């Protein structure tokens, strides 16, 4: 359906009551079953559930005002559940991406590159360009410096030492 025709139909539907809107929906579903040239896009699980509830309420002769309020609440819930599902998919794809990444090609956390590239004051951390310690005359790496001997902590006078 072309966008101009769709917009024109929507403008006309806005003026109708919910009762007439359901009649239009029934007629559109009838026309779709008889004359549709292609399949309508499939609804997701949450939308199908909401539509099933709506159809059952209509079959039970519930007032259109009650159906409208119920569907408003259900649409809000569907929006929340769609957000949760999208977040779950994002986390799952991140986990799969991390699991399939070859070892040694660890990427920095998101934002680490932006922090490193951001201009700002120099930090006191040693830079990678600092010159290494001079090699010893033997060619071997220098021996580690021994730790200073530990000295006992002086005890205040008047208390026995343990």
Shape field? elongated
Radius of gyration: 35 Å
Global structural class: mainly alpha
What is the helix tally?
A: 5
| Low-confidence runs | 113-118, 120-132
Share of residues in helices:
40-55%
SSE arrangement, N to C:
HHHHH
Strand count, sense and barrel status of the largest sheet are: none
- The span between the termini is 92 Å
User: Mean pLDDT across all residues, rounded?
Assistant: 75
- Strand composition percent: under 5%
Secondary structure topology:
Layout (H helix, E strand, L loop, with lengths): L2 H12 L3 H18 L9 H15 L4 H37 L11 H6 L45
Helix pairs in contact: 3-4
Describe the structure.
The chain has 162 residues and is mainly alpha-helical. Among the domains are: 1-40; 42-101. It contains five helices and no strands. The chain has helices at residues 3-14, 18-35, 45-59, 64-100, 112-117. Helix 3 runs antiparallel to helix 4. The N and C termini lie far apart (92 Å). 0% of the residues are buried.
Descriptive terms for the model:
162 residues; mainly alpha; elongated
Give a nutshell description of this structure.
The protein has helices spanning 3-14, 18-35, 45-59, 64-100, 112-117. With 162 residues, it is mostly helical.
